[in-house]
């Protein structure tokens, strides 16, 4: 095992291979507060990549209802239980946030799925703590959809109290997921054929179909269960992050880096994808005007999914504001409280960056904000609040302007002769 720096954990951690990083890493932010589970992302991916024979169970992009839903079923609860059994009571974070780029969430004192494997398995047979889902667990990708958590001990009953923020006593939320294209992928670590690799251009994780022999070690190892086995070809497949679009080689892209199919199809405008600069140790290099860098490291409203697993995922989530905090801390780590507080009363810049979501299919590399007039003054979450109609400008790879948008949505009034037309 090599020692690599994992900035999600705030410490060095063990990984089977030495660290290697691209100059820019594929990453994304999902704002769960906006997700309506329309499944447009799911079907966009399905109709593009997994519509063939043998791929019926493959949902590289999916939206599941928490706390009960999951695909495969209970994927996250099972791996968390295995970590707890491996290190009872030890899966904890040090108190407080680190506040630095190399340890923004404090220090994780527990074991990752790589560290736990040393004493859980024979080192010659497994490098990653994981489990192989049964065939039945791959059924019903929409299981428990829209099922809420109600009053404790009262089955099938909603809690009549607690219907206001900051948390609801009866609640559920939608968790949109794709492959996180981790910096330390468990699928790559587990593959005995070395058939899995990260693209040096953008860190997207791919499976070499010619080298894969279908051992399903990647399926067993991936804690997010985004590597899937195809029975009729006897090889594993996974989300490819629509890399022709990201590379700008898709005919539709016009040579410019473009967002993936699931991003472009998002009706709820919950998604933003980008390519972030990395330092030599895998931490994000300072890039103040990059929207993803701003959301993760400046505004600190976007958090990694299950950072304690140790893979350093490159998918980040703005947590849902109505869900009990202990559940969210388990899912997104100790940065939850600060993220929700900052999101509840967004400052002027954060409100502007939030307008960038889904305004274009092209990848945004930089943004600027032109200040506008104040259009509202009042109270928000018990605090004084002022709203300004600023203009937010997005720029592409070559520094060209992609679009500009304002905080206040424009109102268009149809002329009388077209009042009833579509």
If you had to describe this structure to a student in words, what would you say it looks like?
- By secondary structure, the chain is an alpha+beta fold.
- It has one domain: 2-Layer Sandwich (Alpha-Beta Plaits), CATH 3.30.70.20.
- The protein is built from eleven helices and 17 strands.
- A hairpin with a 6-residue loop joins strand 6 and strand 7.
- The protein is globular, with a radius of gyration of 22 Å.
- The N and C termini lie far apart (62 Å).
How do the helices and strands line up, and which of them pair or pack?
Blueprint: E1 2-6, E2 11-15, E3 24-31, H1 40-49, E4 62-66, H2 75-86, H3 113-120, E5 173-177, H4 186-190, E6 196-198, E7 205-207, H5 217-221, E8 227-230, E9 235-238, H6 243-247, H7 261-264, E10 271-277, H8 291-298, E11 303-304, E12 315-318, H9 325-332, H10 336-344, H11 348-354, E13 366-370, E14 374-380, E15 383-388, E16 391-395, E17 401-406
Parallel strand pairs: 3-12
Antiparallel strand pairs: 1-2, 3-10, 4-5, 6-7, 8-9, 11-12, 13-16, 14-15, 16-17
């Amino acid at each position: 095992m090599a020692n690599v720096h994992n900035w999600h954990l705030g410490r060095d951690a063990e990984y089977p291979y030495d660290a290697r990083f691209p100059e820019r890493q594929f990453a994304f932010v999902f704002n769960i507060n906006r997700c309506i589970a329309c499944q447009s992302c799911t079907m966009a991916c399905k109709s593009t990549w997994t519509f063939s024979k043998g791929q019926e169970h493959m949902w590289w992009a999916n939206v599941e209802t928490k706390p009960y839903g999951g695909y495969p079923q209970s994927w996250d609860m099972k791996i968390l239980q295995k970590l707890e059994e491996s290190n009872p009571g030890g899966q904890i974070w040090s108190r407080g946030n680190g506040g630095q780029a190399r340890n923004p969430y404090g220090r994780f004192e527990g074991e990752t799925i790589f560290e736990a494997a040393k004493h859980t398995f024979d080192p010659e047979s497994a490098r990653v703590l994981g489990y192989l889902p049964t065939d039945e667990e791959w059924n019903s990708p929409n299981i428990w959809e829209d099922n809420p958590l109600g009053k404790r001990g009262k089955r099938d009953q909603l809690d009549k109290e607690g219907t206001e923020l900051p948390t609801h006593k009866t609640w559920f939320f939608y968790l949109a997921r794709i492959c996180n294209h981790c910096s330390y992928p468990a699928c790559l670590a587990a593959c005995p054929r070395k058939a899995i690799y990260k693209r040096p251009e953008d860190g997207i994780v791919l499976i070499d179909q010619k080298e894969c022999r279908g051992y399903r070690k990647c399926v067993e190892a991936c804690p997010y269960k985004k590597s899937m086995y195809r029975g009729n070809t006897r090889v594993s497949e996974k989300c490819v992050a629509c890399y022709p679009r990201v590379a700008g080689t898709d005919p539709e892209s016009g040579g410019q880096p473009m967002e993936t199919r699931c991003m472009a199809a998002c009706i709820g405008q919950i998604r933003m994808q980008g390519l972030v600069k990395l330092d030599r140790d895998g931490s994000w290099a300072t890039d103040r005007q990059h929207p993803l860098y701003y959301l993760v490291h400046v505004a600190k409203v976007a958090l990694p999914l299950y950072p304690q697993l140790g893979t350093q995922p490159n998918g980040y989530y703005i947590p849902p504001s109505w869900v009990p905090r202990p559940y969210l801390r388990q899912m997104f780590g100790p940065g939850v409280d600060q993220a929700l507080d900052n999101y509840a009363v967004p400052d002027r810049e954060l409100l502007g960056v939030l307008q960038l979501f889904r305004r274009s299919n092209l990848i945004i590399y930089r943004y600027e904000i032109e200040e506008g007039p104040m259009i509202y003054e009042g109270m928000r979450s018990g605090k004084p609040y002022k709203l300004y109609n600023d203009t937010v400008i997005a720029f592409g790879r070559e520094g060209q302007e992609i679009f500009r948008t304002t905080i206040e949505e424009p109102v268009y009034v149809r002329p009388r002769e077209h009042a009833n037309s579509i």
